[in-house]
Amino acid sequence: MLAVGFGGWKIALPELASFFNNIAFENYKANRLADTQKAYELALWVDPKSRTALYNLGWLCEEVQDLQCARGKYLQAAKLGLPAAYSNLARLYIVDQKNYPAAVHFLLQGWKLAEDDRVKYSLLKNLGWARLEQGRYSEALQHLDEAIKLDSEGPATYCLKAQVLEKMKNTKEALPQWKICLKYADSQEFDEDIWIGMARQRLNEEKTNK
User: Fold this and answer.
1) CA distance 208 to 210
2) How far is CA 5 from the centre of its chain?
3) Which residue of 129, 143, 176, 208 has the fewest CB atoms within a 10 Å radius of its CB?
4) Euclidean distance between CA atoms 83 and 113, whole angstroms
5) What is residue 50's three-state secondary structure?
6) pLDDT at position 201
7) CA distances for 117 relative to 126, 146, 150, angstroms
8) Distance of alpha carbon 56 from alpha carbon 135, whole angstroms
9) What is the pLDDT of residue 47?
């Protein structure tokens, strides 16, 4: 394992990269985004194959809406075998590129590697989303229900499930999903803020029609 020396101490490069990753996270919590970026870049300078640093830098790029940068970093992390990177990359292909077949491809690749339930939830949620956009509603519903089994409080699945049910003309079953979507969704999250607006509009229409 490669290491660097400091005053007689030797530190493995992955450990040093982890150190800079931790500094970056502290900077992010303090809203010092420029320092956050520098710390992630330092992590990659000492360990160019740090999947975590690549993923986190991609996430930071996405936070400031530099989606080209985000896609590039997520793709690098995915190539190094990080399943969460496949999920985030696929989400960008859904939202930004409208390239649903590519999104499905990345999600299925990530699924082969996923072990953590949180990552599996994300992959299934995004797979349900991609199938919704493709008009493959039964498959979308299946994936979203599987995601809900892994996390029953994840708002995105309910917001997406409501949309699927609406497309399937199952308005009665969609309404409770819209209510849960509105209950758990966070307006600070870009996707969820859009779905909050959809949920409010749909529920207001239901009240008006009564």
Assistant:
1) 6
2) 37
3) 208
4) 6
5) coil
6) 94
7) 14, 11, 7
8) 32
9) 85
Q: Please list, in sequence order, all residues whose beta carbon lies within 8 angstroms of the beta carbon of residue 193, skipping any fewer than 6 positions away.
A: 185, 186, 187
Sign of CA dihedral 165, 168, 169, 173: negative
CA-wise closest residue to 95 among 77, 74, 78, 109: 74
Can you read off the two tokens belonging to residue 146? 């599987």
Stretches where the chain sits below pLDDT 50 are 1-11
**What is the C-alpha separation between 123 and 114, in angstroms, rounded?**
9
| Contact by Cβ (8 Å): 105, 97 | no
Whether the predicted model's global pTM rises above the 0.70 cut: yes
CB 165 within 8 A of CB 173: yes
Tokens in use for 142?
């299946």
Taking the C-alpha atoms of residue 134 and residue 130, their distance in angstroms, rounded to an integer, is 6
User: How many angstroms separate the CA atoms of 132 and 95, rounded?
Assistant: 12
